[in-house]
Write a structure and sequence with these properties.
With 454 residues, this protein is of the alpha/beta class. 23% of the residues lie in helices and 20% in strands. It contains 13 helices and 17 strands.
Length: 454
């Protein structure tokens, strides 16, 4: 039996990207699944279906969709567009661009001309403003922004007022610094409103006065139950550049840090270190009996940061877990690095602090760290890549979001999960924009916390 259409209620359409973050944010704002979701990628549709079961799904190219046929006479209150941004992004490199991909934003104009959505939101990278003609397979630098301006003129001819602005996801409650350009167009004569940031730096006056919340941090999304294997005892040794990035981070965020990020009191587990018999570093939870205490003091702290493996040209130390995660891409580049610390009593340190850290022998014990007035030495370093469920939490998805199987129970590999999150819109972006511009469609805001399980 076909579902009866309500011809009087405005519907919401999402020409979505990745894992369906815009639809999730819209649902958080309105309390309803989006009515129509369109994507050409079967894996993206599969993830969307399991999380938004009441939505009408179209597994088709946005070019092949007839808006009039899809809408079936219903009024469109909101049409969201997240066209492929890779050919505008700084991260794309020097590859030739595809005209049909760069032109995906024109699909929004087709919807504007045919079914006239009351509000249109288009999300893309900042470089979208440079959209222009292609010359010899690449953007013509002499006509940068020419097509973007033409696109805006055509929207205005359809009766839309237009504004655009760059927003950061961390300002709206997502623990990532992902930054995107948003264009809002509306034809109902109502003013375009940009949502006020709800979060800020802890040093900001409005945060200290309680008018804003502090930025959510990368440390919140880490699943501390997943072990980080030693970088020194691997069947396949890490490449030199990876080791250098790790040691730069150790130097900045552990040895030289005034307040290193200490894990044990945040993650509810106590690390106890034994020399690598069987290549194993073991841990126990604080809700478990403590392991056998040996004659030497083997119990200590764990401090951590995130290394960024972006290729040979990246020279930075990574990022602190006290800050939001940097932009997530379709291939995970973030790695959790943990340094295992034991109390130091003035002897037995295998590394002089005035030597370059990356010259350490793999079996040395090195580096002094002071935590609350007590000296510790680093006895091992662990590293692992962030897992898909951590990345989805960092993007601002609710913890309940299903990422590892489709609506039929079929599992997808981690590579597909990471690709979905890298292409997705952080849900807090969409929720904030919809609440600001379409309050008549929204429900009361309920607080949710996308926190990793401990």
């Amino acid at each position: 039996m076909k579902k009866q259409l309500d011809l009087f209620r405005e519907i919401i359409v999402d020409n979505f990207a990745g894992g369906g973050g815009a639809s999730t944010g819209i649902e958080l704002a309105t309390g309803l699944n989006v009515d129509i979701a369109i994507n050409h990628d079967p894996a993206a549709i599969a993830m969307h279906k399991v999380n938004h079961p009441d939505t009408e799904h179209y597994l088709e190219s946005v070019w092949d969709i007839d808006p009039i046929e899809v809408v079936k006479g219903r009024k469109v209150g909101l049409a969201w567009f997240s066209p492929d941004c890779t050919h505008f992004s700084k991260a794309k490199g020097g590859k030739p661009v595809k005209k049909e991909v760069r032109g995906l934003a024109w699909v929004a104009l087709r919807w504007a001309a045919t079914v006239k959505p009351r509000v249109i939101v288009l999300e893309n990278v900042e470089e979208f403003k440079t959209w222009g003609p292609i010359k010899d397979g690449r953007p013509d630098p002499e006509k940068s922004g020419y097509t973007f301006k033409s696109f805006n003129r055509q929207l205005r001819k359809q009766g839309y007022e237009i504004e655009w602005k760059t927003l950061k996801a961390c300002d709206y409650g997502a623990p990532t610094t992902r930054q995107r350009l948003f264009m809002i167009a509306r034809r109902d004569k109502q003013p375009i409103k940009w949502p006020e940031p709800t979060h800020g730096d802890s040093n900001e006056v409005n945060v200290q006065l309680g008018l804003k919340k502090p930025f959510r941090t990368a440390g919140e999304i880490i699943d501390w139950s997943i072990p980080a294997p030693s970088i020194f005892y691997r069947k396949k040794p890490l490449v030199e550049n990876s080791m250098l990035r790790i040691f730069r981070g150790i130097q900045k965020y552990v040895i030289e840090a005034d307040k290193p990020y200490i894990v044990d009191d945040k993650a509810v587990f106590l690390q106890h270190y034994y020399t690598h018999q069987g290549n194993e570093t073991r841990a126990s939870g604080l809700d478990e009996p403590i392991a056998t205490i040996p004659t030497a003091n083997r119990f200590g702290l764990v401090t951590a940061f995130l290394a960024k493996h972006y290729g040979g040209n990246y020279k930075g130390p990574g990022i602190s877990l006290d800050n939001p995660l940097h932009t997530i891409t379709v291939k995970d580049h973030h790695a959790l690095v943990t340094a295992f610390l034991m109390k130091y009593y003035g002897h037995g340190v295998g590394q002089s602090l005035d030597e370059p850290l990356h010259t350490i022998s793999t079996r040395d014990r090195f580096g002094l760290v002071t935590v609350k007035g007590q000296d510790y030495k680093i006895v091992d370093i662990g590293m692992r890549m962030l897992q898909p469920h951590e990345l989805f939490l960092a993007q601002g998805f609710p913890k309940s979001y299903v990422i590892d199987k489709d609506h039929e129970g079929k599992r997808y590999p981690k590579t597909q999960q990471v690709a979905r999150v890298g292409n997705s819109v952080p849900p807090p972006f969409a929720e904030a924009i919809v609440r600001a511009n379409l309050p008549e469609l929204c429900v009361k805001k309920y607080e949710y916390k996308a926190a990793a399980s401990s």
